[in-house]
Predict the structure.
Amino acid sequence: MTIETHETLTKDLRAAADVVVIGSGAAGAVVARILAKAKLDVIVVEEGPPPDRTRTSRSVQDAMFLLGRDRGLQVAMGRSFIPVLQGRCVGGSTTINAAIVWRLPEDAWARVFKGYGLGDAVPLEGLEREWTWIEEELNVNTVDRPRLGRNGELFLEAFQKAGYAAEAIKRNEKDCIASSNCILGCPGGKKMSTDVALIPRAIADGARVFACTRVDRIEVKDGRAKIVHATVINPESMARVASVTIEARRAVVVAASAIQTPCILLKSGLGNRAHVGQHFRVHPGTAIGGIFKDEVRPWQGVHQAADSLHFRKEGFKFETINLPPEMSSVRATGIGARFIEKMMEYKHLALWAMHVRAKAEGSVSPRRDGSATIRYTPGPADMQIARRALKILAERFFDVGAESVVLAVYGLPDRLNSPDELKVFDDAPLDPRSYPFIATHLFGTARMGPDPASSAVGADFQLHGVPGLYVADSALFPENLGVNPQHTIMGVAALCARRILG
Ligand SMILES: Cc1cc2nc3c(=O)[nH]c(=O)nc-3n(C[C@H](O)[C@H](O)[C@H](O)COP(=O)(O)OP(=O)(O)OC[C@H]3O[C@@H](n4cnc5c(N)ncnc54)[C@H](O)[C@@H]3O)c2cc1C
Ligand code: SF4
């Protein structure tokens, strides 16, 4: 497989293709796969480098430095700072994600797409058809018993005991050895992220990939999106190497994520400013831990093994999560001997997370240095839901014998030692600053809709008023989903590619 990088793209270059796809993550890779298979001449332009797994597997810090956007330090600013984790590499966020695959349930489809007049543009039967081949190519399968790990087993036991629906997760991986290192880009390349599963197939069908190449702007010529202007950058020093100008004979597809897609459009002076970069939605999430007498060994089992959609319609979802010690330690309060004592408990720790289908909206805009200003604050109703969800998790921990539950909520004790103490949640703070949220599911910043007055992109996936400029990622989604988004993004991107094929 050949991918151009800053080491080969050393001189200013002019190129042309039928279709230029910006981004190689969930959305971009699917578009490139379909169009290359249909014998279109495709160039994928990707800002980040191809993952070098010999280096990224050393530590979270190395992985974030080499694979993460802004070195893993991107944040949303609002009433609090919320880390917004994204991949910046070939494979995009799929390279560092947990490989959870959920087909969007029908009621969520009706709310997110049909409810906005998009039932024909994004039909559920169309998504189902696309998911079928995508699941085959990504080898989607259910986590089996041995790979659940003790964390997954405890979660399923706890939810079963309470009568709540819960299940082993469906994931895209092949021969996974359950090392729990998905966030490091999967050192053994077992996760079927798009750099492993889809981009190589697109290349085999003739697609070219320009990695380490950041798109600066898209130029409209003769009434169509026509020229893509980009800069080759050294992904480590971030120094400029060369410029690349690509003519798109048929279409430009922006698939750079719900953060970077609106930034590229705004930098190009394209799109309706009332909607491009606005309506930013996320699933704010956080985790709490249960400390068990017996060892849990959170380094055994897949990174995220079991989940529960039981409360999805109320606006939250639960998942197990195994994190490497350096990430868990960030949550451990105390210093010196107290901190060491807490870290000694690591092997007894089960970590369970929740994320909220928050109603709050934020915004995204480009900065000169290529990064983005993200503004976002969860609203009061979202905070009520977050508090309730955490209480449910804490109850479940005690139900299956946790000796204590460790929290990282400012204003609450850092540890609960008995179920009698669960009442602290009832008047826990509702200030987002008290909770260590993180955002990895991002939506809404170039929303799709039939009416140009209330949307940025038309039902034909083209930016209103700019023929030939397609948007393919979750910037399109008018609302957040309530389930993990990768699979819906891939399905929607596939529908976008079919439109281009006509
Ligand atoms: C840690 C983590 C865990 C997650 N776990 C899951 C999970 O288990 N299941 C799930 O469903 N979802 C998960 N997600 C979310 C999921 O990975 C994303 O929703 C999905 O990958 C988004 O797809 P995308 O194509 O919109 O963006 P991305 O996959 O992020 O791809 C966008 C690509 O565009 C590139 N790009 C951006 N700007 C430019 C530019 N100017 N020029 C050129 N290229 C550019 C980026 O470098 C990136 O490679 C997780 C995300 C993270 C960060
Ligand atoms: S659990 Fe380990 S082997 Fe399995 S996909 Fe994740 S990193 Fe790869």
